[in-house]
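Annex B. Sample input.
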Amino acid sequence: MHCATHVPKKSAARTVLRKRSFDAVARLYDRFRPGYPDALIGEMVRLSRIPEGGRILEIGPGTGQATLPLARRGFSVLGLELGASMARLCRKNVRQFPQVEIRNLAFEDWEVEPDGFDLVLSATAFHWIPYKVAYPRCARALKPDGSLALLWNFLDTPDNRFYHDLHAIYRRIVPRPHFSQAPDRRIERQRKKIVSSGRFGPVTVLRHPWQSEYSADDYIGLLRTMSDHAILAPAVRNPLFRAVRRLINDNGGTFTRPVVAVLFLAPKRRA
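Annex B, continued. Sample output.
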């Protein structure tokens, strides 16, 4: 679910503000942001044919949601994290794995190590990098037989009374609310972006549906980590959260949030 706000007015400025909003809620992010199904991580490792102990470049590791499963599998990971607080928490979470390095650095500012990595991974972060920057830099960092792996958790909104009421709250309180598209549409759009980059393909897409049950406190905690909610003016955000909390409590105190975890895996095209 995505929300718009009047501040700032320009889309580019709003994108920068959203991109940098996560660091202020790093502890909430670490607590409430979900990871990815271990089976999907395993398929990524298997299908990419990354060698044992291979090198992974991770763009935007957050606090380690995808980093930890890879560290536990023995891979060497270099994570580039824009937010200083996020990077500190990620280092703390992976401190028992000496083969993992987390740098507080934007991917765009990193000096590319040509042909240095077996896999470039980005989990729910790749959309923050300009298209014309992201794909060429990833391709340059990869070895000739390396692959690009992108992970997302796409909300799969049920057609039921609870979600209809939830959407009604956003329409009533949030200026110009925008709601997530169905997973299949988002998947096809991202697949086309990878192919049209000319740097990667063919694209393998794997879907892994899963769900979590949320209390009102847990769901509000999750919403506070979402950039579109973070940039809402307090005069909008506070009544929104109160109304969402009331809805959850009026419906038994918990609800189920289904998502589809999606892996996009594409080998580097040979020149």
